[in-house]
Amino acid sequence: VEHEPARLRRNTVAIDHEGFDLVLWGGTAARAKLPGVVTAEASFYHLGERDRAGRPTRDRSLDTYGGRLLRDPGSGRVDGEVEAYRQSGSIAASAVAGSARVPVSAWFLHAAAGYTLPGAMKARLSLRYDRASGDHAGGRYGRFDTLFGMRRGDFAPSGLYNAVARTNLSTPSVRLEVAPSRRWDAFATYNALWLAARTDAFATTGVRDASGRAGAFAGHQIDGRVRWWARPERLLVEFDGVMLAKGRFLKEAPNAPAGGTTIYGSFNVTASF
User: Does domain 5-271 have CATH number 2.40.160.100?
Assistant: First the structure.
């Protein structure tokens, strides 16, 4: 994503750039109906990046590969999911031209188990754990890159709030979901947040303590959403809310912002034609 505020203020019209300076390719193969009503997936994706005029990059060349086993939720039964990915390749030490290349060795793990209660509320309770590697001292780059992944699926609503993502993160969580009718549903999630590598920046906050003395506990997060179809299949109303209560790391790290708790709320309306 390029940010050019001067052109935005002038309301400049320009043709989108199309090129090969940032390319993602790959695919996923899946097989359903394995024993236990389990679906298995295997994936491979390659991201290739290079500089172009006015846009220096870290020239990422990343291979991301792994798989997933999942059993879909159903009334009165246990469901679950295990997902693991490894990332290898190389990256420049900085965006400065001519920077040395560093080998990449990173990984990500997601595991979840849930149960849907019988009844009209369709209440589902699940326990989850996510861990994405961070960077350590040494000759390899260990920070997991989410490529183009979304945040909403696991940690927080899309939009302005983007503190927690799948990089340098270790987080157990519990989630409660309800879907009483086709017109509305809701969920609430609690996450306890730790750094996977205490000397690296936490998730996507940019907050870092290179000495590691601020510890690894980042805080507590409570996240919730309510959706309602004002007009079925046509007009969707959504409310989102997040509360991040800072732990020791987000209070004591040298560049940690002031304040103890962040509260985020949003209201969205989506019209489908």
Answer: yes
